[in-house]
Amino acid sequence: MCSSDLVNVKGCKYGTHRVLEPKGTLPQAAWRIDNTMRLYDNEILIDVDTLNIDAASFTQIKKEAKEDNAEIARIVQDIVEKRGKHHNPVTGSGGMFIGRVKAIGPDIASNINLRPGDRIASLVSLTLTPLLIEEILEIRKDQDQIRVKGQAILFESGIFAKLPDDMPPPLALAVLDVAGAPAQTARLVKPGDTVLVIGAGGKSGLLCLYEAQKRAGVTGKILGMGHSEASHNRIVESDLADHVFSLDATKPLEVYEKVSDLTSGRLADVTINCVNIPGTEMASIMATKDGGVVYFFSMATSFTAAALGAEGIGKDVNMIIGNGYTKGHAEIALSVLRESPILMKMFLERWAVS
């Protein structure tokens, strides 16, 4: 990068200097941000090659596009051109990227363990990341990934992970995209707990199953719930659940009755919701015992539906809205695949196709 591409101004560490509309908000909450790729003194410029779109967002886009790749590309490009970031206006979610460091602002170059040329994955959402897509090269619908030629900016407060040497980049991206889920599961599940994972056959669900089984131990019980036949089969193949069943998570009474039957009426101590469609809040709440914990990792979760729904049925549960960042989450998520040969095989076959 030549000196003329540097702004020679230090921006806000949280990126507010990039907010165009409305002024005074943080980049994630903003409708539109500045995605010009002139580097402020405390920013990092990345040449981006792959976007991993949030599952809820990609599901909505694919449905709107009627599964047509050209239309998917048009919708994604339109979002980025209008907003300066990939922030789906319907789901409110984004995703993450992988790419190669092109330049580092002089104010932070000596403070971070990063050099130009390093391959990294962003661990902050695309909903707050200035992004410029020059060309969409390939749509990978089954992997929720899009190959692009483009650039992105990481703010001083942005977190990232260097891509590991022992995994292909698409695999690392698939895992790091949902790294917050297994890390939170490790924190929430205690020995002897009964744990229900809804959406257990997806990326985050399988990682959560592993951590739930590991933390609950031999005295715990793991319930893996999928929806499609493929999801059900992946849960069975993982051998990480004591009971595997398929139900529609938008039908709370059916889920409640099944979990009640499997637990002799005790219900789940911890329920982890990893689905990518709306309307599953009440199934999660009803399947959890009073005083238990419901962890909503899904970006399709409605806080209003969860809060008012629990109140409406008189259910006293502790509800946690998924935080994509948990201390050590990247290391925990990657270690799951290193520890589990079967999950490594499944992720390579399903989510890391080159």
What can you tell me about this protein's structure?
α4 runs parallel beside α5, α4 packs across α10 (329-339) and α10 crosses α11 (341-351). It contains 11 helices and 14 strands. It has helices spanning 55-64, 69-83, 169-176, 180-188, 203-216, 229-238, 252-262, 281-286, 303-312, 329-339, 341-351; strands at residues 19-21, 32-33, 44-53, 95-104, 119-122, 131-140, 145-154, 160-162, 194-198, 221-226, 243-246, 268-273, 288-296, 318-321. The two termini are 30 Å apart. The longest helix has 15 residues, at 69-83. The protein is an alpha/beta fold and 354 residues long.
Taken as a percent bin, the fraction of beta residues is 15-25%
Structure summary, number of beta strands: 14
Count of runs of 4 or more consecutive helical residues:
11
Query: How would a textbook summarize the main sheet?
Result: 6 strands, antiparallel
Secondary-structure class: alpha/beta
Helical fraction equals 25-40%
- Taking pLDDT < 50 over at least 5 consecutive residues as the criterion, the unreliable ranges are none
Biggest sheet, spatial arrangement of strands = 6-7-3-4-5-8
Please give the radius of gyration in angstroms.
21 Å
- Average pLDDT score: 93
- Global outline: globular
Helix and strand pattern: EEEHHEEEEEHHEHEHEHEHEHEHH
Cα separation of the termini: 30 Å
